[in-house]
Design a protein that fits this description.
The protein has 19 helices and no strands. The protein is mostly helical. Bound molecules: tryptophan. Tryptophan binds at residues 22-23, 25-28, 100, 221-222, 224, 227, 229, 319, 322-323, 376.
Amino acid sequence: MATASREQWGSSFGFLAAAVGSAVGLGNMWRFSYLTAEKGGAAFVVLYLLFTALVGLPVLLAELTLGRGAGKSPIEALAHYGGPRWKPLGALFVATGFVILAYYSVIAGWTVRYALEALTVGMPADPGAHFGAISEGLPAFLFHIFFMGVTMLIVAGGVTKGIERVSIVAMPMLFALVIGIALYAATLDGAGAGYRYYLNAEISNALSMDVVVSAAGQAFFSLSLGMGAMLTFASYLPRDSNLPAEAVTVALSDFGVAFLAGLMVFPIIFALGLQNDVSDSTLGALFVALPKAFSSMGGVGRVIGLAFFIALIVGALTSAISLLEVVVSATVDGLGWTRRRAVFVMGGLITGLGAAAAWSLAILDVMDQVANNILLLVGGFSLAIFVGWVMPDPRGEVEPGSPGLGWFGGWRFLLRYVVPVVLAIVLWHSVPSTAVNLWKLVTGEG
Ligand code: TRP
């Protein structure tokens, strides 16, 4: 359709800031930390790094190649190279965006609330009870509406004037905050126990299938892969951009922030003797253990806590933007709506769906599991097959702007064989266990 008038990023840094902004978010700080604690420390980190390099990076480059080549939103981009029978896959991407953004925004709403409280009344005296009170029901819903509202305003502003303008400021700020907090954490007495836990790989810990599944899901979620977010952002790239370099930069930044998040979270928690709080709870870990630590540090804790929650908000916002942009760009291209109309109608529907996640933590948890352990992995599997086997000339599409093509054979091999096999094995294990959890929720046995 209107390819000629399609918006483009204002600068290559603008694209990078937006793509890193999409990748870096609650997944790096909240999800990565609690999974690392729950799944046995450094062994999980090593697996996650392995999945990022061997599975995440090839799929990321596949999405960038599809997006830039077609210059279209996901549904149209798949049809462009594969014909109309690939459109349902694009529709699945859009549906996945709906589900993820709906619950993601509820969690982001919690972080907004914690930051506001750090500013006004300080850290909660009893974080466990506090989290119970604010994480479900009307309070959670109101903050979710607020967060969705801000996300919608930015996306309504458009690619350069909305998304790019916010990302250029937000990303450097997030890096500064995360590095600052990690440096502060290093000065705490007892930080050493946290580092030892985090960095000592006890490889036998990683040998269970459950840990492998979690590491794979986390690599996809953290890189925003498997639902066309990176594809959509790449559709606004000029033809001469260096896609392999962009992919490597995004993957390194994403892993870097997750790694740094561990360097802030674990020393703080171990220095204050709270390690059991983290491994006991799952979803709520960060929102209970860290405020406990912050409140027992007194005045400094309030400042560090505020900085920490601001970093979470900034990361969540730039990620939420990318999720909404997938849905909006597909609606604009597919139904011919204006951007504004797409933002308000689709954003409104997503806000409504989020009510379910705000209503109950159990529902939120199941939405997270269905999205991560199934939808994103099916999406990544299909993308690898599509670019590896179906797309007529991936070499010709990835080549412009990239230095040499010596890596092409390796990339194609990973997409054709390694990624599909690995993801099929992971799905084989994750589908039944997720279905059981879903069943428990529906029958109320949870
Ligand atoms: N990657 C983001 C995070 O780590 C979340 C996210 C944004 C995402 N866009 C996505 C996840 C698309 C999956 C797909 O917080």
